[in-house]
Specification:
The chain has helices at 5-12, 16-25, 42-48, 58-127, 136-141, and strands spanning 30-32, 38-40. The protein is mainly alpha-helical.
Length: 143
């Protein structure tokens, strides 16, 4: 079952605007339905935003928040480091690919310059008519 935008916001405890911004920036992939509403896969949503549990009472919620506050920083820091390492690896791969593409384009430019230089001489020779002009007698008798 896929979530709508409002269902996704309720499932994560986030605002609909936050979910919509994540979709627009590409952090979450979603399919836009025929009516213009989004269909968000739960696994895709919870990959970015963890599901929120609805506590039964406020006391339980406060004690749960206190416990999470004790353990969340370490876990979230480790998760953030892992996420940043993945992003760095992707950025390095992209940089290597762009470097190879740049080298290939430089080789192509050099090849095209050589071809242009060699063709300039041929074009100049074709434009300059260096054939000997026929003499007066040739022009008079060979018409």
């Amino acid at each position: 079952m896929k979530y709508s935008l409002s269902e996704a916001a309720k499932a994560t405890g986030k605002n609909k605007t936050t979910i919509h911004r994540a979709i627009k920036s590409g952090k979450i992939s979603a399919i836009k339905g025929d009516g213009g509403s989004y269909e968000i896969d739960p696994s895709e949503l919870h990959r970015v935003f963890p599901p929120s549990a609805a506590p039964r009472d406020a006391q339980h919620m406060q004690s749960n928040d206190t416990q999470q506050a004790k353990f969340a920083p370490k876990s979230s820091h480790i998760d953030r480091v892992v996420e940043l390492e993945k992003e760095l690896a992707v950025a390095r791969e992209r940089a290597n690919g762009l470097e190879a593409q740049k080298d290939q384009m430089a080789d192509t430019i050099n090849d095209l310059r050589k071809r242009l230089d060699s063709s300039e001489g041929r074009v100049t020779a074709l434009l300059a008519d260096n054939r000997p002009k026929p003499g007066l007698l040739y022009r008079l008798f060979n018409r």
